[in-house]
Amino acid sequence: MKIIDVDVAVVGAGPGGCMLSYLLARSGVRTALLERHNRLDREFRGYFFQPSVVKLFDQIGVLEDIFHIPHQHVPKFTFVDHGKTLFEVRFDELEPPYNYGLTIPQPPLLEFFIGQAARYSNFTYFGGTSVTDLIEEDGTVHGLIAQNHEGEELEMRCRLLAGADGRHSTIRKLAGLSQTMGEFELDFVWFDIPKVPGKDYPLQIQIEDEGMLIYIPKGEDQVQVGWVIPKKTYPELVKKGIEDFVRTLIAVEPDLQNVLPRHLRSFKQCSVLDIQVGMTDTWVKDGLLLLGDAAHIASPFSGQGNSLAIQDAVIAHDTVMKALESGGHGIVPAELLKGYELYRKPAVAEIQSMQAMQARLIAMKSPGLLRLRRMLAPVMRRTPLFHQMRNKIALGVQRVDVNTSYFTK
Ligand SMILES: Cc1cc2nc3c(=O)[nH]c(=O)nc-3n(C[C@H](O)[C@H](O)[C@H](O)COP(=O)(O)OP(=O)(O)OC[C@H]3O[C@@H](n4cnc5c(N)ncnc54)[C@H](O)[C@@H]3O)c2cc1C
């Protein structure tokens, strides 16, 4: 078995893991990033990043480079209720320069960060390598066991293991860290369609009697479409057949007539997001830290998951650097990591409860409440409370800045 020794082993090359390993590599830390997939166009993922992330990309000096990846600036997020704008979350009313969100395909973005990290000789990327076990003694994590696609085993010893391996986190389970799950009554069905030339596709949630349709612009010529269904009813949808699904969507949005019958031919083109909301009860222990979806799962309302994972990485970077520099060469103890959890957990919980409120507002069914919603929306969007919510959605609920003083160059 191959044996490797690093300072920090980061597991999972999603937005959280890529950002943390890049920041650590750039700060001179011997860092390894392990990802079970060979290629990064892994499971279907959301492409929307909040203005808070635009700011972080700028702070580390990579924003202009990222603009070489096909992307779109998103000036606002619109809620349309039976053909009428209910309200808009206007990023373009925020203070410049961070007054827009971005849609960027995840695979080239993640590859970009791995490529940047690989410029530092203290960074190693292990693609196609799954972590299968922890090396743990008396509740302290000393490293991990992984296996690559050829079946070769790897033992990695580290001072800290960062679990950024997503909502079904193996690291969380192996470390015995429990998770509290919330209730969520909806699931999303996602698929891509080509843009109809000349038609505008703003970031939008469209509410109709039959359900909710979500558009997320994706690159130059594609749109990601989401359809909200009651929880666990996807098998019924599939049973009725793709033609029935296409008819339902066209009834909601007649413009789709031009594109759906030709481009949505099978449920194989769709993926279901089983919407879950959850919080891991403890994010750190001796030698271990969790971030991103491994630490918390946000609902997809207002597109927060990517941004939360990246914000975690930025705060974790600062905490880990302080811990590594505080002397000694041993395992990083939980007491030096706890500040990260204490800072991030309440912020994530606040975002999750804001999302739950949005979901309740959008999923209203009773005709009386719907009338009230339509009457109050124009008043609501002029209140300071609405602007505060907009700022929290776009910029996050707390200050998150990259500590660039650790960068070696
Ligand atoms: C369909 C869909 C649409 C979404 N839309 C949006 C959106 O528009 N905006 C938004 O902000 N969020 C969105 N989200 C949520 C967002 O994608 C996640 O919150 C975000 O990806 C979390 O990042 P992460 O780095 O924590 O984990 P992930 O992105 O889940 O990455 C985890 C990585 O760990 C790897 N891994 C897992 N186990 C192991 C192992 N044992 N060994 C090695 N590697 C392992 C996985 O292969 C994966 O690459 C969406 C999610 C889905 C599923």
Automatic annotation (TrEMBL):
Protein name, entry field: FAD-binding domain-containing protein
Gene3D superfamilies, per database record: FAD/NAD(P)-binding domain
Keyword Calcium in annotation: no
UniProt keyword list: Oxidoreductase
Molecular-function GO term, any one: FAD binding
PANTHER family: 3-(3-HYDROXY-PHENYL)PROPIONATE/3-HYDROXYCINNAMIC ACID HYDROXYLASE (PTHR43476), FAD-DEPENDENT MONOOXYGENASE (PTHR43476:SF5)
Keyword Oxidoreductase annotated: yes
Domain FAD-binding, residue spans: 5-350
Domain of life: Bacteria
